[in-house]
Each structure stands twice: as structure tokens, then as C-alpha cells.
Amino acid sequence: MKLHDTGVYLVNGVPQTSAPAGVTEADAKKGTIAYGILKAHNTGDSMQDLRMKFDSMTSHDITYVGIIQTARASGMTEFPLPYVMTNCHNSLCAVGGTINEDDHQFALSAAHKYGGIYVPPNMAVIHSYNREMMSGCGRMILGSDSHTRYGALGTMAVGEGGGELAKQLVGRTYDMSYPGVVAIYLTGKPAPGVGPHDVALALVAATYANGYVKNKVMEFVGPGVANLSADYRNGIDVMTTETTCWSSIWQTDDTTKEYFVQHGRPEAYKELKPADVAYYDGCIELDLSTVECMIALPMHPSYAYPIRELKANAKEILQAAQDQANRQLGGKVEMDLVGKICDDGRIYVDQGVVAGCSGGTYENICAVADIIKGKSCGNGEFKFSVYPDSMPTYLELVKNGAVADIVSAGGIFRECFCGPCFGAGDTPANGEFSIRHTTRNFPNREGSKPGEGQISAVALMDARSIAATAANGGYLTAASELTDVEYTVPDYHFEQGVYDKRVYNGWGHPEPDYALKFGPNIKDWPEQPALTDDLLVKIVSYITDPVTTTDELIPSGETSSFRSNPLRLAEFTLSRKDPAYVPNAKAVKALDEQRKAGVLPAEVARVYDDLKKLGYAPDAANTNIGSAIFANKPGDGSAREQAASCQKVLGGFANICYEYATKRYRSNCINWGILPFTIDQGTPFDYQPGDCVFVPGIRAAIENGAEDIPAQVICRDGSTHDLLLHVRGLTQDEKEIILDGCLMNYYAARM
After folding, report:
1. Residue 114 is part of which domain span?
2. Does the pLDDT at position 177 exceed 90?
């Protein structure tokens, strides 16, 4: 794999370092596939400052209640574009009661009232349904799940927080600067046994840490594309999220065309390819024939190695991964990976799972069946489960015998459910090691609770190697090690009737008088204050990890059962990373309540006294008191807005960091009125929980577009320190959202 240090021209499909005579870089940038799609969806006058509207949207049951509640509060009366609401994330939660189905009934009633599309529980995972029914060449889809990626089907898809979807629902635009575009130039053909997850993990390993494609579009081109099936392309594409790219797009061909014909939508196809000359801001050349069977060790998809290399250096590599994981766990519990090395040198794993939008596709499961047919998973501790991505996929696997082959070998077939990907299904036992064809292996993503002494480890692998491991009784085995497997890939026959008989499609036919169905756990968002002239924030959590994920900010799994109740969900904020955060944040919020009641708390008075000594004149009536989180690089991972909304519900007013891991988390913070402060790389931030930061004139600074904002740190010991904060690149709408206190306030003021 080669990552170019400079921009690259694609000239008649061949990468070159210079442009043909008479061609400018500016003109050649218009030759990418991405440019054409973005131009078609831009409603503004400038291609540098995009103002986009999407063709459709999608959410699952962790996010759609909050989005609809936000849009309702902002004046929405009907869905102005097709909105797909799936129920693939919480249908197996074990909290008891009616919470899950109450939310599902809310979504169905919203589909009736506002004209939406409702996919019942266990029918399809979110991205599979959108691939099958909503994708189309040249289209754009916005989803409230970070893995909203349909580029392999010629569809630019973007995963964002709920606030951005609410904007679309009230007729506003998705605003951003024109992104860079990076060519992923594919050649060659994958070797037998090498699956899409292997290619994806190789790409993630090569790009995540160096930020090569961060917030850019990955555009897949080159002769190697033709050597990949549609399912294979989808399997690579969905994992582009883990590179931190903004979106993805692939050149289309007869394989893409056949996919749409197969799914009864031939009109959705059109040829997409770069112009004869196209300029890319970077280029990755990847010979698919060089990719090996891969494994991504805990606790990130980028910690990827060839399985061959891991087996040859098991003690060294697993020890390093174990040490790194335990540093991330912060001493709460100890992960043991080295202990999985057997006396004979083999590596034993306890569980294998193939699931979701990345693993549960038709071809992946067919390959699993081909590998495990006639064999046995064994009757020891090893467990093996398969989750198909949709009921049409499941039906075809039943018809062609793949389900029978897997079940006969001791595998368990489950529902069309995303659970193992986010910690709500097949949680391993304490100390166990699970290999999964899912999208992420972040800390606790599998459902363990380190704060309660529970820890398990997850590595990512392709379905083929997981099946090979299952057939070998749980001993780690790459599919490429098998020499006797015939991969059959039976023809796929999509039966849309499965959806027609169960999915409610009310697009274009809203029923305004239809009553929304509210369960007792579905609550409105609490009122949020506007930004005052000055701001005083107290640091309540100090996180020094290199990267902080949204799963750490608001844990996934059973906590998401309270997704429709902002106050109850907020109780889980940082619960697995910093259990003291919630009570400390509540204590700060109580200070602000006293302030608003006209009482100046004693500890705030002491801070004000220190500020007066420096020449400031703090005015309690015009100074919000809120909490703040410091983290080096927050926001990797999920798009769900709760990572920001829970902070705000608890009185959060600011984040301070060196950089944001993703655009979507920063956008979520802005939409909830949380100031997205950054500080310069190399600037020491040695302050601790309990220390305060005073930001004078913050409202005027935001109004006037100031990007460098002086602040004062007041430490618990009474010492004071200057601090330069930055708020860069805010759009006019984003400024006004922050000033108003959150997106809902912004819209309410303009209704």
C-alpha cells in the first residue's frame, strides 16, 4: 500500500503526479465523482461553502426519538424528505418493561403523522435496508449513525448527530466547507479467503493514526474495483468510517447496475466515474492481491496485523496490545491477552460473532457456510453466532441451505440485529476473548463493565477467518490457511415482498391528525439557557487518553435503553470512564441554579474575588456557570448526539481539547450549545477537576467571529493562569446556535 505525499492527477484512469498541459488544478478538482455529487446537492452559490440538502435520511432506535422531538420543538409539521426509521439497535435489550417497544410504537406513529418509513424490529439492520431500498447512484443520504456509508453503490452517505438531521426536517441545510477528496486506487484481486474486512482493516491501519483521510471523501477508483462484488465493496465501504473520513464514493459499473436490477430498482443506476483528468488531494494505491487475512486487536480497528504475523510473534504482539489496553482501562481492571496463548503456541479465542451491516451480508455468510459445512464448532467453551443483515438475506440463506450448514456445525443463528456491534448482544464472559466481524472494538463496546470488575476483549476479523477459527475449535486460524474450501457464492434473489408485507411506507402521505404514541419513558428535552456575556466553567473531568470515544462519553449497550429520556440517559455520562463525572457535573449545575435564583454560592464568590484581584469585574447575573470536560482528542466513534446532549443536560457548557477526533462530534457539541474550545498543540493543560476557567466577553466574541479568545484559569489553590482558547471555523448559523443555547432554542426564536 502506497500513500502519496502530494496530490495526484488521475489521467484517463492512471495516477500521475502532474497535470497534462493546459489543465489547472482547480479545473481538475471538478473532475472527481465527489465534486459532481456535491455540486448537485449544494443549494448555495459557492462550492467552497456548501449548503446541502439530502435525498433521504435514516435513523435507528437509539436516535430517532430525540431527532423527532427536536424537530417537533423546532416547528416541523411533516417530513420534507424520505426518512427511514429502523429498529435494529435495542430490540433485545434486557432491561425489562415496555421501554423498547414504546419507542418503536412512537416511531410508527411518527411515520403515520409526518409521512415516514418504519422498519419493524428484526427486519433489517439500518444500513442494509438503506442499501437495498434507498441507495442510488448520485444520491446523498444523511444518517444518525456513524456508519452511514453507501458509497459502494454510488451514494454519498454521511453519518452525523441528530441535530443535523433535525435541520433537514425543518428545511434547513447541512453546511460545511468543501472537503478534500482522496483517491483509493485499487488494483489486483483479493486472494482466496481474504474478505472485505481484511481490506478494510488494512486501510484503517494505514490511515487512522496519521489522519490521511480525516474529514475527507474517500473515492474508490481503479481497475481493481471491477474484481470486487457489490457485497464485497459494501463490506469495505462501511468501514471507511473508522478512518475518520467524512464520506465515501466508488466508481460504478455493471456490477453496480446488476445490484440495482437484482433489487428491483434499475432506475437507481447510472455510471459514475472520474473525468478524463481529475485531481485528488491525496492518493492511496492498494494492490488487493497483497492484502492478507487481518486481525484488529483490542481496543481499536486500527490496531491491525496480518494473522500470520500475530501467530508468528504471539507473545510480543499480544503483550504490547495487552499493555496498551490496560493503560486505556486506567487500572480499573486488567485485560489478559497473553494468557490466550496455549502451551503449544496456538492462540485460543472464546467466541466468534458475525453480525450487522459489515459482517452479516449475504456473501459473507455464504462463505462462512462454505468453510464450516460438515465440520463442528466443538462443545467446549467456544461459541459461534451469526446475525444476518436483513430478512431478505436471511430468507435466501434459508433457501440455499447456508443456515442449515451453519446450524448443523453448531453455530447459532440470530435476528437481524446490531447488538454485538455496540454491546447489546453476545457479551462475552469476564476474561474472554471474542473475534468479531463487526465495525468496532472500542473499550467496553462488547458490553463489559470495567467499573464493576468485568472485562472482555474483542478483536475484529473477517467472517471467513472467524469461520475458519470456529471450524478449528476456537484456535485462531486465518481463512487463507485453508486449502480445501470451495467458495460457492450462490446467486442471490431479493424478495421485496418481505418488506412490502411488514414495512410501513408513508412517504408523501402524512396524516397530520394521527396521534403520536408516547410511552412513559419518552420525555421532552429540558429547557436550555442562552449564552451569557461571560462564562465560568468548572473542570469536572480530566481525560488524558490519546483519543476519547463517544462510547466512553456516553456508553453504548443497555444504557441506550433510556435513549428517549434525556435526564435518565444523562445519568450514564462517562460512567465507565469517570464515574465521578455525573455527581460533579450536577454539583456545578446546582451552583448555576443558585446564581439564577439570585444567590451567589460561596465557592463562586471566592473565584470572583480572585478575578477581581486581576482587574476583572464579574457579573453574576450575566455569567453562566457550567461544567467542562478536558480531553486530548474527543469524539471518535459513534455519531449519536447523546455524547453531547447528555453533557448539556447536566449543565455542560464547554469542552477543551487539542483537537476533535471527528467533525460529527464537534457538530453535536455546537448544536447543543457546548462551546467547542481548542488549545494549541503543545500548550500545557495541567489543570485538574475543581479548577475553573473564566471566559470574559464570550458572547461578544462569538457574535463578532473572534477565533482566539483569552481566558483565565483559577485553580483551587488560588493561583491564576492565562489561557488562550480557540473557536475556529464557525458558520453564521453555528454562531447563532451557540448564542441561543442550542439548536432548539435557535429554531424556537425564529418560528
Report:
1. 54-172
2. yes
The residue to which cell 423498547 is assigned: 100
Q: Calculate the alpha carbon distances from 582 to 574, 646, 648, 676 in Å.
A: 8, 10, 12, 20
Q: Are 99 and 156 within one domain?
A: yes
Q: What gap in Å lies between CA 608 and CA 248, rounded to an integer?
A: 50
Predicted confidence (pLDDT) per residue in 425-457, tens digit: 888 999 999 999 999 998 888 888 887 889 999
Closest CA to 478 of 285, 676, 228, 307: 307
Per cent of the chain over pLDDT 70 is: 99
Number of H helices, E strands in the chain: 27, 32
Question: Are 552 and 655 within one domain?
Answer: yes
pLDDT digits (tens, 9 = 90+) for 481-535: 999 999 998 999 999 999 999 999 999 999 999 999 999 989 988 999 999 999 9
The C-alpha torsion from 639 through 206 and 291 to 9, rounded to 10°, is 100
Query: In 264-321, which ranges are E strands?
Result: 277-280, 282-287, 294-296, 304-306
- State how far the Cα of 271 lies from the Cα of 551, in Å rounded to an integer: 38
Cell numbers of 275, please?
473525468
Q: Residue 329's pLDDT is what? A: 86
Per-residue exposure over 514-543, b if at least 16 CB sit within 10 Å of its own CB, e if not: bebbbbebbbebeebbebbebbbbbbbbbb
Based on the domain organization, do 77 and 40 belong to the same domain? Answer: no
Choosing from 115, 144, 172, the residue where a domain stops is: 172
Nearest by Cα to 658 from 684, 691, 639: 684
The confidence band for 91, taking pLDDT boundaries of 50, 70 and 90, is low
Q: pLDDT tens-digit profile of 678-692? A: 999 999 999 999 999
CA distance readout (Å), 215 to 146, 241, 444, 726: 13, 10, 26, 19
Please compute the mean of the pLDDT values over residues 84-105 and round it to a whole number: 82
- Give the pLDDT band (50/70/90) at residue 65: very high
- What's the rounded Cα separation, in Å, for the pair 439 and 416? 15
What are 692's three cell numbers?
Answer: 475553573
Strands of 23-72 (E only): list them: 49-52, 56-59
**Grid coordinates standing for 526?**
429540558
Mean pLDDT of 618-625: 96
> H helices of 575-653, where?
581-596, 602-613, 642-649
Instruction: Give the number of other CB atoms < 10 A from CB of residue 718.
Output: 11
The mean per-residue pLDDT over the stretch 532-557 comes to: 91
CATH code assigned at 644: 3.20.19.10
What is the b/e burial string over 719-746, where b = at least 16 CB atoms within 10 angstroms of the residue's CB? ebeebebebeebeebbbbbbbbbbbbbb
CA distance 698 to 532: 8
- The residue type at 648: K
* 386 vs 362: CA distance, rounded Å: 11
Q: In this predicted structure, which of 98-102, 263-267, 411-415 has the lowest mean pLDDT?
A: 98-102
End-to-end C-alpha distance for the chain, whole angstroms: 53
Asked if the model's pLDDT at residue 94 lies above 60, the reply is: no
- Tell which of 172, 187, 204 closes a domain: 172
Contacts of 236 (CB under 8 A, 6+ apart): 152, 196, 199, 200, 203, 220, 228
Q: What is the largest CA-CA distance in the chain?
A: 81
Rg (CA), the chain: 26
Residue 505 placed within a domain:
no
Beta strands per DSSP E along 114-244? 117-118, 140-143, 156-159, 174-177, 181-187, 217-221
> How far is Cα 516 from Cα 648, in angstroms, rounded to an integer?
26
**Residue 353, strand partner residues:** 385, 436
Give the residue from 344, 297, 293, 700 showing the smallest Cα distance to 532: 700
Number of domains the chain contains = 4
